[in-house]
Amino acid sequence: MTLRQFVTATMVILACLSLAIFLTVNSTWLFAINIPLLHLTHATGLTTTQMMRDYDRIIQYLQLPWVGSLKFHYFFSSAKGLQHFSDVRRLIMVNNLIGIILVPISSYVLIKLNKKSLTWLLITPIKVVVTLALMIIVMMLINFDQVFIGFHKILFRNNDWLFDPRADPVINMLPDTFFLECFGLFFVFFLGTLGIVYWLGRRSLK
Q1: Per-residue pLDDT of the chain (206 residues; tens, 9 = 90+)
Q2: What are all long-range contacts of 123-132, with beta carbons under 8 Å and residues at least 24 apart?
Q3: Rounded-to-integer distance, Cα 174 and Cα 169, Å
Q4: What value does the CA radius of gyration of the chain take, rounded to a whole number of Å?
Q5: Residue 69: CB partners within 8 Å, gap ≥ 6?
Q6: Which end of the chain is more exposed for a tag (fewer CB within 10 A), N or C?
Q7: Residue 56: which of 195, 175, 170 has the closest Cα?
Q8: pTM greater than 0.90 (yes/no)
Q9: Which residues are CB-contacts of 81 (< 8 A; sequence separation ≥ 6)?
């Protein structure tokens, strides 16, 4: 593989990754369907409407640059809890910036490669990434807690993500099962977008 091919493959894969993260973060419907499934009204003492309002506030804070602070209607928060949300926001903003840049460029590159029947050059890199993704999925199914902890240790330099329900009761509406589903949804989006590129590559071989 030439350097140019490596850069192209990396760019396309990062675009798919960024898009998958964006779609997952904004899938508020996943939280909505989990309210009755995980009995979150009982866990929090709030109504479905109240939880959705504060969950929407979280997503708006994480996604919108002009929302400068996170203020809950129905929860109180500690300084450490708010700092963790701020750390997550910073990562998501970086991801959104990457997506804004790479998704349009990668789409243009894919169109050009497809016209020249060269999309097959992306097949091997995609196979490698899909294999790694499947390995992570298997580890999640075996021991999600350990993967979840490792994920946070890699991304965050502090322990602010260790929420105490007494200081940050918002964690009561965000149980581990919900985060497992978020990871699962992310991989559906990620592998789905990679699958489209792989299909284009296989078609270009014909």
Answers
A1: 688 888 999 999 999 999 999 999 999 999 999 999 999 999 999 999 999 999 999 999 999 999 989 999 999 999 999 999 999 999 999 999 999 999 999 999 999 998 888 889 999 999 999 999 999 999 999 999 999 999 999 999 899 999 999 999 999 999 999 999 999 999 999 999 999 999 999 988 77
A2: 123/198, 123/201, 123/202, 124/1, 125/1, 125/6, 125/9, 125/10, 125/13, 126/9, 126/13, 126/194, 126/197, 126/198, 126/201, 127/198, 129/13, 129/194, 130/191, 130/194, 130/198
A3: 10
A4: 19
A5: 61
A6: C
A7: 170
A8: yes
A9: 160, 163, 167, 168, 170
Q: Which amino acid is at 170?
A: V
Q: Which two tokens stand for residue 190?
A: 């990620």
